[in-house]
Amino acid sequence: MAYSNRHYEELKGAYLFAEVARRSSEYKRANPDKKVISLGIGDVTLPLVPAVIEAMHKATDDMAKKETFYGYGPYEGYDFLLEKIAQQDYKARGVDISTKEIFVSDGAKSDTGNIGDIFGEENTVLIADPAYPVYIDTNVMSGRKVVLVPTKADNGFIPEPPDFASDIIYLCSPNNPTGAVMNKKQLLAWVGYAKKHHAVILFDGAYEAFIQDSSLPHSIYEVEGAKEVAIEFRSFSKTAGFTGIRCGYAVIPKELKLQGKNGEVSANELWFRRQSTKFNGTSYITQRGAEAIYTPEGRAQAMQNIAFYLENVAIIKKGLDACGIEYLAGLSSPYVWFKCPGGLSSWDFFDKLLTVCNVVGTPGEGFGECGKGWFRLTGFNDRSNTIEAIERFKQL
Ligand code: MLT
After folding, report:
1. In this structure, which residue's CA is closest to atom 4 in ligand 1?
2. What is the pTM of this model?
3. What is the pLDDT of residue 15?
4. I need a labelling partner for 392 at 20 to 30 A (CA). Which of 3, 127, 304, 377 fits?
5. What is the pLDDT at residue 38?
6. Is residue 358 lining ligand 1, measured as CB closer than 6 Å?
7. 333 annotated to a ligand binding site
8. Domains of the chain, each with CATH number or no CATH
9. Which parts of the chain register pLDDT below 50?
10. Own/partner pairs, 249-252, CB within 8 angstroms, 24+ separation
């Protein structure tokens, strides 16, 4: 009999959002007459913006004609998209990233999970707690040692470099689940730590488009020296409603080196090797859709959707204010991170919110120890559902 990957036995239960879905489906099945509103998983509800739809229709027409048909694309993505990313996401913010350092993918979830393929099993991985569960679970699956860096409410849930060494560090800003955004000084401290310990930072910037404060960095590469120590991940899921379409990208600077058997090796080359072996590229139609977000009208339309979701966030926070519930301040994230009322545990509060208010949220504990007693709601539902959910919540 074939052996299983034994590391899977070390995982703590089901994947968080699968467990949330299981519990809410069970409740819905038992209570078919109830209208359950989900402010749980961070899934968008607004349709793709017109500029994206138009570009995807046109790309579909390209695929219908022999002269403009596309088969397998480049593993790293088409130049038309890579150039827009390099120009508008980086050069426009004073960061020099070449198209050869960008790899288009099917999203940040896959990238942040798959990146472990280029790192040895012997690395120690540092993860700020609470965290997006993909970081921990994928490293446990690969048998790497995970060390958690606790973050606390009184420090705004901002992780600080510890006084011990590690090899790989996951940072997420704006943070999922807390919504905390790291400033340049805080990122600089991590870049300094990575340099000191020859570590690599895996910087998840999936929620970058939600940043409202112009003083805050959108990319870790806005910090001096970060190109030597950091890989960055971005996603079109929350930026432009691509959760169902799937598109994102990773930036792996040429300067970033890892320790090989016989000296230094390029992380960029290893990732190309990995992607060209295991991934056949993001579809042409999808990449044309993503490209449309970089046109002035596409950008404006996507930003309008983000403003809409942030208004939902403001509505949820107003509701929490009315109930005197403590939450993490700031408006640069689609998530509201708050303390469970009545001293309830996260899962007990999840059950209560589901059964009494018929509202689904995400228990903070699912993101780690430091999320115990905290809870996450999203601003991604539509306006009437958000208002209704928060009215039910206020009654509770
Ligand atoms: C979340 O709710 O944290 C996200 O939607 C999950 C994801 O992006 O995979």
Report:
1. 42
2. 0.96
3. 87
4. 304
5. 95
6. no
7. no
8. 6-47+296-395 (3.90.1150.10), 51-294 (3.40.640.10)
9. none
10. 249/77, 249/85, 249/102, 249/103, 249/104, 249/105, 249/111, 250/102, 250/103, 250/105, 250/111, 250/115, 251/90, 251/97, 251/101, 251/102, 251/103, 251/221, 252/101, 252/103
